[in-house]
Amino acid sequence: MPESGPRTCPVLGVAKARETAQLAAEVFLYRWEAHRARRRRPPDRNQPMSKPSATARELWTG
């Protein structure tokens, strides 16, 4: 009784799992970099870094 799937050939199953993990890691890193760039870019473009430091100073002084 031949089985279908990765259990018929362990080598191909390991290779497929490794390929899937590689692809998932690449997609994750791509989306993470896009997420970081999207979060980091608008404050740099809209205003200088003086306003966050001013708000931090206000929080520090109370």
Give me some keywords for this one:
62 residues; mainly alpha; 2 helices
Overall residue-averaged pLDDT value: 72
> Which band does the percent of strand residues land in?
under 5%
Helix content: over 70%
Shape descriptor: rod-shaped
Helical stretch count? 2
What distance separates the N and C termini?
A: 75 Å
Structural features, described:
With 62 residues, the chain is mostly helical. Helices cover 79% and strands 0% of the residues. The chain has 2 helices and no strands. The longest helix is centred in the middle third of the chain and has 37 residues, at 10-46. It is rod-shaped and about 70 Å long.
Secondary structure topology:
Elements: H1 10-46, H2 50-61
Region (Disordered): 36-62
Q: Quick recap of the structure?
A:
By secondary structure, the protein is mainly α.
